[in-house]
Amino acid sequence: MLHKNPTPPAIEFGKVLGSLVKAKHYPTVVSLSQQMELTRVAPDFVTHHILMNSLCQLGHITFAFSVLTKILKRGYHPEAITFNTLIKGLCLKGDLPKALRFHDKVVAQGFRLDQVSYGILINGLCKVGETKAALELLRRVDGKLAQPNSVMYNTIIDSLSKDKLVNDACDLYSEMVAKNVSPDVFTYNALISGFCIVGKLKEAIHLFDKMTLENVYPNVYTFNILVDTFCKEGKVKEAQNVLAMMIKRDIKLNVVTYNSLMNGYCLVSEVNKANDIFNIMSERGVTGDVWSYTTMIDGFCKVKMVDEAINLFKEMCCRKIIPNTVTYNSLIDGLCKSGEISYARELVDEMHDRGQPPDIITYNSILDALCKNHDVDKAIALFKEFKDKGIQPRVYTYNILINGLCKGGRLKDARKVFEELLVKGYNLNVYTYNVMIHGFGKSGLVDEALALLSKMKDNGCIPDAQTYEIIILSLFENNENDKAEKLLREMIMKAEIESRFEAPYLCKQAVLELSHQIFLKVSNTFGSKINLQTTGIKGSCVRLSHFKHPDQLLWSIGSKLASSSVFANILKKEYKSDAVTLNTLIKGFCLKGSSIKHCTFYDKVVAQGFHLGQICYGTFANGLCKVGKTREALQLLRRFDGKLVQPNVVQNRVVTYSSLMDGYCMVKEVNKAKDIFNAMTLREVPANVCSYNIMINGFFKIKMVEEAITLFKEMHCRKIIPDTITYSSLIDGLCKSGRISYHLELLDEMCDRGQLPNIITYNSILDALCKNRQVDKAIALLTKFKEHSIQPMCIHTLFLSRDCQSGRLEDAENVFEDLLLKGYTVMIQVFCDKKACLMRRWHCCQK
Fold first, then answer.
1. Domain ranges for the chain
2. Which CATH class is domain 150-218?
3. How confident is the model at residue 738 (pLDDT cuts 50, 70, 90)?
4. 201: how many CB neighbours lie within 10 A of its CB?
5. Using 50, 70 and 90 to split pLDDT, how confident is the model at 66?
């Protein structure tokens, strides 16, 4: 165009530049404008304005103002649209003070701005959190500078709603209606979102109904707000109802809708349904974004389906969807919790390479995993590493480290870290103090725990119920009963004075150590608290041994309620007894082995109309199996299955089936246990690690080694992670069947999966090695697990016996002396083995 002869008029250039602006090719517009000027093509007002807009979009505000100077020099009269471009440019740069000064200068020179000008200024103020200033500008504009419109009101209403000032937003809405400014879908969306943010879902739904009645049609954003809120509250069914409305109104679901629904299912642990939604989304042509994948990865990790999460992560990379820090954090946390710490650390390196620097949340996950894995030295090294990188730890980070140090037996180091925090002025929370107090209590340092409680109060950190419980239990364990009762009285007084004092644990173990008078005082004090009915009785069942007649305390109902019964107090005070309360009582009878009484109790509660849940029936079945009444437990299962309770709580049904399998395995009827195991699959009740442990152990008890190994392999295929009990059972069974070589592979596999071998695991291997006269290997293994701070139990006896049998009399004598020096209680078998050793030595001398 520039080389045409004659040169086209400026209007033609304006059309070209305008199309480039619509495509957001702002640098090209600036470049072409400069070429026009060089070839002496005279720009008109439109081309000047297009250039000014492009410069503002690129953030070149100074050059944009120089264009305004040219417009004025050429004698053009600027319109409101010209000033709006410059005001918007200043707002985009975040320079609100300069935008307001420019506004004042323009108005002072007699230029008139329009509704768009003030809409831009109000929006700019709200975006930087100056909602109050935006409201003042609206008042200043009203009827003087311009007529307020729905855009101005909507912007301020939206800002107020996001600031949780919903009442103020509603007042502005009322003012808007009074001034005949019609609310539109954006007005209602802002208010509905505000109500949802502050948890007023009923008001949000009422407003939704109101907008429909006023013929303001909701859009996809309106529905997304409701879907997201329902899902975040775990009300996925209600969210599905909203989706049905969307489909009925022919409103297409977008990626935000699907993401909210997936998140809702993940929150209620229904990850498979979330995955179905993920697949449906793709089938309907909606491309998942980074949040779609992040939601699913986090959901899979939370239910320990880490392999599925890894596959999705790889799929993201294949589809060129760049994972963000949240994606990496979710996967790293899942890997750490499943014992895959080395892979998690590889991902941290990948984050650096991809320009997604790890944050404190990333390192918290790895730090927590290392501490739980007893790798405290590695945890400390990691802590120093990320501090050197400039990542500041939070109080939560220090809590993880202090807890890890305390549990790792390094109380001095934990105390040092804790005191450094106090010196540095950190605002420590109650959890930090509780961790440290618990560490003192476990180490028997009760005076230090009490001193820290006092210091905690002095520092303005209010102890909670758990703080008191930790110290009271420590006092009881150290026979400081008077101090414990005194502290409990203080706790009761605190609860009576402070209405906000929560007491979820007050009626647990520690309270049951006291006299009935104190116990009933606690019952009366916290009777109005919602958790009395569950936690109070829970403590009773745990510590029934502290009462002379525990059955009289708990086993009573209806007209025969004992005056000292906690359950009686609950009913007399007209609290609603739920299935949890009844289940705790039933569990109490089971713990005492009172199967007849708990069956009688069952008949009474059912007869009086109480509804027992799946946990109650599972407890019944478990109690019967534990006392060898597996057949009765099976009859009970058939009685309630699908009749007395609905088979919808899968986890509770797993417990019931597992109890039955365990019962059959105890009496070596493993084939019947296998039938129960198969029935679980037919009834779509997924077996868990406990179910497999029972069956693997059962098969080994009757020497069915191959069947046990097959089940172990099946666990891997079904993505069920074996725990320490699984490996210990498998190693013990293999060792007893003579397959000693396989145990080393299993030990390595355990460690790789973050399942640390315990003393039972090592005992099985040591026994097998000694019986096979591989005493040197056994001694090497003993040294190895001593290095891991695992204390031997009956292993010395084992070595003494095998050393004697293999003729290593001096080694056997050393083991015997070691037992006496360490203060072990020596059993008669040990003395017999010692005598056998001496007799062998005497015979050798005789020869």
1. 150-218
2. mainly alpha
3. confident
4. 17
5. confident
